[in-house]
């Protein structure tokens, strides 16, 4: 069907429109001027910069022809931008589209949290035009004002909890922002800022921080955003496209720039998840380095699961990225300024757990194992912490790396503080065929010193108690005291002789080791030797002839 001579032809985004000249001119000052100056049928070449899509233009055309149009949060900003471009103002025609759309925007969009976010999102495709008309600022200001009134609109603050296998449900929900909303206008379903693209999300979060929105709520929103746009795509469910990876990379880098600097505000588990995603997406090096520094600054709040970062790349050898963990450790120690050593002890124990987890990796190099262990030992060397965790890690490493030479096994055990091992660990070590002989004997010498110290303290305590009792009862018990003193003297002599006997036995062991004749004996009779030493000191107890265990949480790497 041919168009009427009174119609004008327009092509908008490839869609043809045939519209009445007079009706268009009556509502649009811009089209009226163009039609007057250009009587030809097709004006498409004169509207190359029109800020619209075919659906929005159809709405405006229907309005020009007198039909009712349905404005919504999704289309009102686009309609406003097009109406302003076509100069559909009250100056040209009363009850025109600019007035109608402005009224709807002011009274239906800005008061509502949900509608305002939807309208804000719709501006992404015509951002410059919407910004020029201050529509973007109006939406942003409305959203920020509502958040200042009720920060919970961003989600409840993240709960910094440590999860175990027994509370896997908590692990699933611990960091989900609360969906509760208190709105200015009651909405059927609550929206959040995760609807926005990063180009809109980043500036509005920066504005919130500038306006002093509490940072714990900002952090909640940031990780809610990551959970929607980044984390699902880096967990292996579906391989993201190149476009999606680029978008996720941009989001990670933007969110990292927005993260609050306060220590402990963001749990290490979330920072670790963010770092692992950054590694997979290959974000810029500065971003990854800053995430490592953030984790390092609060490493005393981390769990071993947070450090089990899988190695990436085709050339990877080790199962976990131990080099990155070493950098994180250095960051912690270089930033630790507290006089309280408890943080150092916590991190040292964390390293012990980490080493126990990675020690079974056959590709874990000896120098890396030692480097991590030495970092921990150097920082916590002056503290009174148990060495059982380090012994357990060494035991696993020696078991999984049977090919090590004697010198290499000696090197592994160099980081073990034998004098800080518990009696249970020492008992296990005395039966551990994987340990070098020198280390096992060193442990026995350490036990000797501890037992000698215990005997001396017992003798001293007995003497002190006896002197106190003699002072109190010297008149009534003068006759009996001499016999009791003789019994005490006999007991002290007995304990002393046991210590001397033990020292003699250890000296003999040392000499035989130096002559090289003791190795066969020690491999053959470790259990009986340990029992004999305890029998000599009169402290035999029921022993569990089982492997040494340190209580630890079961860890499932991401």
From TrEMBL:
Residues 187-450 form the NPH3 domain. The keyword Cell membrane does not apply. Pathway: Protein modification; protein ubiquitination. Transmembrane segments: none annotated. Residues 6-73 form the BTB domain. Residues 467-512 form a coiled coil. It holds the Pfam family BTB. Keywords: Coiled coil, Ubl conjugation pathway. The keyword Protein transport does not apply. Belongs to the NPH3 family. This is Phototropic-responsive NPH3 family protein. The lineage of its organism: Eukaryota, Viridiplantae, Streptophyta, Embryophyta, Tracheophyta.
């Amino acid at each position: 069907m041919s168009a009427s001579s009174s119609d004008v032809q327009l092509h908008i985004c490839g869609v043809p429109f045939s519209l009445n000249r007079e009706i268009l001119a009556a509502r649009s000052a811009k089209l009226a001027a163009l039609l007057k100056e250009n009587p030809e049928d097709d004006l498409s070449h004169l509207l190359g910069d029109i800020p619209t899509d075919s659906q929005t233009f159809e709405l405006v055309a229907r309005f020009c022809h007198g039909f009712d149009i349905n404005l919504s949060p999704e289309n009102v900003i686009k309609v406003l931008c097009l109406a302003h471009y076509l100069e559909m103002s009250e100056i040209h025609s009363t009850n025109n589209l600019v007035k109608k759309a402005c009224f709807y925007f002011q009274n239906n969009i800005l008061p509502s949290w949900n509608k305002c976010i939807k309208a804000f999102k719709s501006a992404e495709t015509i951002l410059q035009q919407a910004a020029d008309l201050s529509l973007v600022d109006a939406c942003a200001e409305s959203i920020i004002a509502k958040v200042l009134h009720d920060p919970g609109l961003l989600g409840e603050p993240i709960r910094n909890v440590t999860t175990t296998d027994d509370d896997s449900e908590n692990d699933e929900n611990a960091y989900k922002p609360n969906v509760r909303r208190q709105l200015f206008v009651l909405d059927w379903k609550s929206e959040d800022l995760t609807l926005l693209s990063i180009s809109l999300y980043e500036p509005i979060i920066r504005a919130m921080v500038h306006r002093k929105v509490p940072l714990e709520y900002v952090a909640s929103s940031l990780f809610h955003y990551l959970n929607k746009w980044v984390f699902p795509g880096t967990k292996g469910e579906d391989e993201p496209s190149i476009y999606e990876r680029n978008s996720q990379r941009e989001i990670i880098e933007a969110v990292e720039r927005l993260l609050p600097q306060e220590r402990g505000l963001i749990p290490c588990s979330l920072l670790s998840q963010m770092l692992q995603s950054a590694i997979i997406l290959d974000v810029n090096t500065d971003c990854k380095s800053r995430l490592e520094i953030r984790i390092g600054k609060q490493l005393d709040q981390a769990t071993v699961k947070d450090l089990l970062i899988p190695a990436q790349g085709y050339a990877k050898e080790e199962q976990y990225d131990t080099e990155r963990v070493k950098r994180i450790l250095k960051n912690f120690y270089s930033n630790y300024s507290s006089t309280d050593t408890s943080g150092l002890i916590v991190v040292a124990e964390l390293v012990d757990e980490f080493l126990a987890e990675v020690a079974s990796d056959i590709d874990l190099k000896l120098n890396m194992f030692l480097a991590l262990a030495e970092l921990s030992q150097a920082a916590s060397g002056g503290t009174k912490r148990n060495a059982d965790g380090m012994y357990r890690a060494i035991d696993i490493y020696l078991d999984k790396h049977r090919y090590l030479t004697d010198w290499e096994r000696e090197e592994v055990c160099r980081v073990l503080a034998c004098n800080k091992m518990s009696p249970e660990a020492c008992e296990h070590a005395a039966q551990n065929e994987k340990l070098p002989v020198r280390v096992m004997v060193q442990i026995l010498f350490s036990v000797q010193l501890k037992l000698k110290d215990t005997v001396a303290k017992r003798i001293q305590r007995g003497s002190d108690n006896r002197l106190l009792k003699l002072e109190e009862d010297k008149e009534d018990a003068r006759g009996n005291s001499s016999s009791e003193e003789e019994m005490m003297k006999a007991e002290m002599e007995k304990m002393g002789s046991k210590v001397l006997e033990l020292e003699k036995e250890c000296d003999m062991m040392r000499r035989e080791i130096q002559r090289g004749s003791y190795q066969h004996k020690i491999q053959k009779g470790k259990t009986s030797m340990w029992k004999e030493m305890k029998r000599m000191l009169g402290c035999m107890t029921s022993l569990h002839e089982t492997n040494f265990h340190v209580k630890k949480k079961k860890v499932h790497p991401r």
